Amino acid sequence: MIYFIKETVIAKILVTGATGFVGSHILESLMAIEHTGVEIVAACRRPEKLLTAYKGEIRVGDLRDADYLDRLLAGVDIVCHAAGWSSFLSDGQASREQYLEPTLELINHAVEWRVSRFVNLSSIAAAGLKHRNNADCRGQPRRYWPMINCMIAVEDYLRAQTTRNSHLNCSVVNLRCGIYSGTRLGTTSPLPLLFSRIDSPLLPCTGGRYGYLPLVDGRDIGQAFVRAALAPLDTSYTSLNIVGPDTPSQKQVMDFLGRQSKQSAYRLPLPAIFTQITTLAIEHVSHNPGQKLFTRSLNSILTNPLIYNDKAISALGYDPEISWQASLQSFLDHSQKTSAQPELQQAVTPLNSYLGQ
Predict the structure, then answer these.
(1) CATH number, domain at 124?
(2) Model confidence over 68-95: pLDDT tens digits?
(3) Considering the entire predicted model, what is its pTM?
(4) Which domain holds residue 147?
(5) Contact present, 15 and 41 (Cβ < 8 Å)
């Protein structure tokens, strides 16, 4: 992997969510460039979960702790914000408290500390189905999916900040990433949720123009973040789609996963409108929200047109390398080593558990 970085670059890069799927891959990519002018700071709540190869600076704390934010951002030039939250349920309180409110406060503090660039992790699902190939298109809120509404609110807030504080020379790069795949993938991501349901004959499969699954390996996301952090850009707000080098159909992915489970049912791909209706019916079958087979929000992120990397290639020199088959195999190899069961929402941990209170 070749990165075009100025020899004289001097930057302290903060990676939030450094122990998570995206954050850990950003750390790997930053460590791989071995540039003497780049200092890495890993922000996390549980430093024992950091990559064993990481030997850089660590700032331990919780983004929900207001006092931590000033300590976190001191001396930082660039923020790679990979601390996220995953929920495919319709209760929005947890998404607001765990993701939206801490992220808005982080942005405010980053502006106060004169950070020069803020790289934000978002999702291709922020856009409506017909506009997913246009990363500049504003997000389309959905009443049944509060978490994506929170991500859209962050995007809108960042756009407003670049206009309101243009004199501060803080640029924003918003990365709308595809469906995560590869090693170290969390159990609340779409792919583990799909794999855990692959043997159910009720699992809907979308075909046609919206029947694609734009997977992206963590290693490719990592290099996209590094490029977004260090590439020279002319605009104050840049939004890009980030997916893998090739895009399979839903059926191709389901068949691939089904062969591994040896229990996959035959699936006839249906037009998106029919899978939406089927999902709505399935969603109302279970009275236990956390145990639903499928939800409209999960169907929304899994239903996509072909997504292209053209703008990211042009703006950043983004060069995705990991094929969807290789990435899925990495995911399957890793999933065999964990006994954790996929959940539709991350568990909420009280703030004081991280503060030692």
Answers:
(1) 3.40.50.720
(2) 999 999 999 999 999 988 999 888 999 9
(3) 0.93
(4) 11-178+217-243+306-321
(5) yes
